[in-house]
Design brief:
Elements: H1 3-17, H2 21-28, E1 29-35, H3 43-57, E2 61-71, E3 74-83, E4 88-98, E5 104-113, H4 136-152, H5 159-162, E6 163-169, H6 178-187, E7 191-201, E8 204-213, E9 216-227, E10 230-240
Parallel strand pairs: 1-5, 6-10
Antiparallel strand pairs: 2-3, 3-4, 4-5, 7-8, 8-9, 9-10
Helix pairs in contact: 1-2
Amino acid sequence: MSKQLENATNLYLRGIRDGQIKEVHDHYMGDSYTQHSTGVPDEKEGFEAFFVDFFKRNPKREITIVRSFEDGPFVFVHVHQKLNDGEAEWVTADIFRSDDEGRIVEHWDVIDAYPKEIGEKDPIYGEVSLTDLDRTEENKKIVRRFFVDVLQNKEWDQFEKYVSDDLIQHNQEIAQGGPSFKQYLLENDASADFVFKVIGQGNLVVAYSKMWIANQDYAIMQLFRLEDGKIVEHWDNKEVMPKKSELTNLGKF
């Protein structure tokens, strides 16, 4: 495990799960900490202030890092949070940026509710192996082109070029298969305003973007698994874009 992946993991498990804020500050974060999470103030002091209150409200915290990968200084973690014996449950998709020493200096996330009733596929769980490490850059390019051609330029006849008919779907609002994904996007007039960041490792690629879906602006983090040049599995988290007047930091991006 690299230093940045170890530090991101410890920030979650030792910090948010176990409440060891000083340990996080001293060992896992860099000198500064730029925050983009909704409602969390900037810098180390903001992190501490938010989570001290979070710990009081949520004394019982079960946190599972379901999967993670890294791409240069960036780390992605996909997390299930179960609070107060299931009183609240969340799926969190996080991107961390590290400094040259592997310490965490910036954080983005999109948090979505873990549903009470699960459809055919769980929104986060499922066996996924990290493969095709030699195809990382190629797979990132495929995802970028999917966003440009289909979700920005609305070339819907190109959809099948990028997405498998047998797509495994984890979004609880969408049926299985590529055609159902396409239908959902069309019916909700979905489009990508801009793609902020694409990171990946091997067959797993994450795209963090601002999208227009069903007459609403969202920050959306989507995880794709690729195989033989096509998207074969899809997870996503989305949050309504907060108003500027409500921001406690630099915003989602």
